[in-house]
Amino acid sequence: MECVVSSVVAVLVVVHTVSMTHAADHSQVVAEADALRNSGWWIWRDPDTSNHCSWSGITCNEAKHVTGIRLRNYQEPIGEVSELNLSSLPSLNFLILSRMGLSGSISDQIGSLTKLTILDLSHNQLTDPIPHQIGSLTKLTHLDLFDNQLTGPIPHQIGSLTKLIHLDLSSNQLTDSLPHQIGTLTELTYLHVSSNELTGPIPSSLGRLTKLTHLDLSYNQLNGSIPHQIGTLIELTYLDLSWGELTGAMPSSLGCLTKLTSLDLSMNQINGSIPPEIGNLKDLVTLDLSNNLISGEIPSNLKILKRLWLLDLSYNRLSGNVPSFITNNCNQTTFDLSQNDDLEGHPGYSICTGGHATSLTLIISLPLTLFFVALILGFAFGLWWKKRQLQPESMPVKKRRGDLFSIWDYDGRIAFEDIILATEDFDIRYCIGVGGYGSVYRAQLPSGKVVAVKKLHRSEIDEPTYLRSFKNEVRMLEQIRHRNIVKLHGYCLHNRYMFLIYMYMERGSLYSMLSDEVEAVELDWVKRVNIFKNMAHALSYMHHDCIPPIIHRDISSNNILLDSKLEGFVSDFGTARLLDPDSSNQTLVVGTYGYIAPELACTMVVTEKCDVYSFGVVALETMIGKHPGELITSLSSSLCQDIMLRDVLDSRLSLPEDLQVAKDVVFVILLALKCIHSNPQSRPTMQQVSYKLLSNIPFPKSPFYAISLHELKNQEM
Ligand SMILES: *[C@@H]1O[C@H](CO)[C@@H](O)[C@H](O)[C@H]1NC(C)=O
Ligand SMILES: *[C@@H]1O[C@H](CO)[C@@H](O)[C@H](O)[C@H]1NC(C)=O
Ligand SMILES: *[C@@H]1O[C@H](CO)[C@@H](O)[C@H](O)[C@H]1NC(C)=O
Ligand SMILES: *[C@@H]1O[C@H](CO)[C@@H](O)[C@H](O)[C@H]1NC(C)=O
């Protein structure tokens, strides 16, 4: 009897539990549907509101629990990431919201997604720190937060994600040091944290990541020396530690990384000599050690590196004989010694011509030719943002093996085919702008890096003399390194194609931002003053630190590009000359209407002062929010006495309240007015402008609201 009773009870208990589970399960499904619906992201696209599992990008399991969300590339920003209540979606396996214009911060609810294996929030505008709850996602294999505006340190809890294979935190504003706990992620094959604000040393624990094939820590402020433990990363094919503050000597253990194809340590303060073990890296295609403090001789065993295409040792302190393999090979296109090769007749580039040179000083002045390419950079770029619908010229595809004239360095692994694949043969969908020189495309390379590709409208590619000067000039422009100049990575001449590859600038041109009512407000006074400084430093560098000086010739707000942090970059340095290498500074077709210095109409001679004038116009435009147009005319008449500063400043922003900001704004206007002086001799040089920025100027006597443009125009600098 007792037995019977207890078994009945047992059955009842079981039935009760099952029905409770069903009810709980059903309410969970309802909660998931509600979470999706409440986000508002699907409602416009998927009118069938009854079955959320059928909505675009949603994956459900049989029990109708949402296991995956995959949305990419929506045309319009969909809102804040917090609109999706993540804690209602505990079954999520993957969450992919890439390039969705998402803003706001990653909520700490993310920690409830314990089943997540893939988290991809790349290419959005997410802000604030990465929540430490991310450490709960212990099943993650793939974490991609590339290209956002995340701040704060990388949480050390990331060390709990021991299944991670792919980790990309590049292009954010992450600070503090790289947590040593990253060394526990021993399954990692791909680790990119470039373009952040990380400081401190490279943790030696990275040496435990023995499966890594890609390691990119570039564009940070990492300091200390390269840990010798790096030599244990024997699977590495790609290693980029450039643009940091690394010191000390290159560890000889680098010679253990025998699978490396690309090694970039440029733009650091590495000293000591080049370890001869580098000669073990037999697969190396790119070796860039430029802009360091490396001394001693070039090891002669580098000649074993048969696949080497780019060897850049410029801007170092090397001495001794130039090994004969360099002098003998320097005119092969696949062996690029950057500014040291193929430069007959260029003073300072004598390595090729003097095969018996006894002393190699690789600190090289930037020659005239540098100026050509930099010009190219921004011109077409600048227009990209709003002009995606414009039709690029169509070109027949004709790929024959072996007719590749030249490729570029970038990471040593880009090939012509990568660009064709990434842009689907220059499909209009990838076109981000059209300019006078060509159409610009966005290309995501297999390594994940994004570049801008400018396909030039040009038909003279077949002329040998044209080709030669083009190649020389591009190579030298590739060497321009300034933090506010859009970097040219390389070029390709291929049958009828001719294109240049540049750093990709997320926010498009200054012109397009100022023309957009919403984006213009994002550019507050502090950012605008900063962009002014960026431009001034870049131009001063080209005019005064390059010998001979490089004149841009086409500064306009279309050529000032902005990165994700709204830092200004001058683009298109050198374009005009690059496309017409035989032209002197006497020229017909340069400049953009509205930015051309008045004297140019008469003299046709381009000088630095023409750039200064255009710079002044762009500076005014930055502060008043539109091209100054007639304001420039009225400034030269006596009417300007009546024009008040407060009345010309961009009315979409409220007047600066902070005293320092107000001073900076006044200062920018003052310098801009000096730069647009009708007499070129009366304009300051870019160096003077750049120096003034570092010094304190006297504030005008009048209070801010009473300052007139006339007063500023006549004030001493
Ligand atoms: C999010 O979902 C959880 C669980 O379903 C719920 O407790 C919480 O109140 C929700 N939060 C918001 C802001 O709706
Ligand atoms: C690295 O930089 C940090 C500050 O960012 C500093 O405290 C530390 O001393 C530096 N270390 C070296 C070796 O320069
Ligand atoms: C390299 O720099 C470090 C400091 O960063 C210094 O201690 C060392 O002596 C230097 N070595 C050489 C060869 O100059
Ligand atoms: C380099 O160019 C010269 C003259 O243009 C030519 O004679 C020589 O064979 C070339 N060397 C190589 C290795 O291609």
Automatic annotation (TrEMBL):
<feature type="signal peptide">
    <location>
        <begin position="1"/>
        <end position="23"/>
    </location>
</feature>
<keyword id="KW-0812">Transmembrane</keyword>
<dbReference type="InterPro" id="IPR032675">
    <property type="entry name" value="LRR_dom_sf"/>
</dbReference>
<keyword id="KW-0675">Receptor</keyword>
<keyword id="KW-0472">Membrane</keyword>
<dbReference type="InterPro" id="IPR055414">
    <property type="entry name" value="LRR_R13L4/SHOC2-like"/>
</dbReference>
<protein>
    <recommendedName>
        <fullName>non-specific serine/threonine protein kinase</fullName>
        <ecNumber>2.7.11.1</ecNumber>
    </recommendedName>
</protein>
<feature type="transmembrane region" description="Helical">
    <location>
        <begin position="360"/>
        <end position="385"/>
    </location>
</feature>
<dbReference type="GO" id="GO:0005886">
    <property type="term" value="C:plasma membrane"/>
</dbReference>
<feature type="binding site">
    <location>
        <position position="455"/>
    </location>
    <ligand>
        <name>ATP</name>
    </ligand>
</feature>
<dbReference type="InterPro" id="IPR011009">
    <property type="entry name" value="Kinase-like_dom_sf"/>
</dbReference>
<dbReference type="InterPro" id="IPR001611">
    <property type="entry name" value="Leu-rich_rpt"/>
</dbReference>
<dbReference type="GO" id="GO:0004674">
    <property type="term" value="F:protein serine/threonine kinase activity"/>
</dbReference>
<dbReference type="InterPro" id="IPR008266">
    <property type="entry name" value="Tyr_kinase_AS"/>
</dbReference>
<keyword id="KW-0547">Nucleotide-binding</keyword>
<keyword id="KW-0723">Serine/threonine-protein kinase</keyword>
<dbReference type="Pfam" id="PF00069">
    <property type="entry name" value="Pkinase"/>
</dbReference>
<keyword id="KW-0677">Repeat</keyword>
<dbReference type="InterPro" id="IPR050647">
    <property type="entry name" value="Plant_LRR-RLKs"/>
</dbReference>
<keyword id="KW-1003">Cell membrane</keyword>
<dbReference type="InterPro" id="IPR003591">
    <property type="entry name" value="Leu-rich_rpt_typical-subtyp"/>
</dbReference>
<dbReference type="GO" id="GO:0005524">
    <property type="term" value="F:ATP binding"/>
</dbReference>
<dbReference type="Pfam" id="PF23598">
    <property type="entry name" value="LRR_14"/>
</dbReference>
<keyword id="KW-1133">Transmembrane helix</keyword>
<keyword id="KW-0418">Kinase</keyword>
<dbReference type="InterPro" id="IPR000719">
    <property type="entry name" value="Prot_kinase_dom"/>
</dbReference>
<keyword id="KW-0325">Glycoprotein</keyword>
<keyword id="KW-0433">Leucine-rich repeat</keyword>
<dbReference type="Pfam" id="PF13855">
    <property type="entry name" value="LRR_8"/>
</dbReference>
<keyword id="KW-0067">ATP-binding</keyword>
<dbReference type="Pfam" id="PF00560">
    <property type="entry name" value="LRR_1"/>
</dbReference>
<feature type="domain" description="Protein kinase">
    <location>
        <begin position="426"/>
        <end position="705"/>
    </location>
</feature>
<dbReference type="InterPro" id="IPR017441">
    <property type="entry name" value="Protein_kinase_ATP_BS"/>
</dbReference>
<keyword id="KW-0597">Phosphoprotein</keyword>
<keyword id="KW-0732">Signal</keyword>
<keyword id="KW-0808">Transferase</keyword>
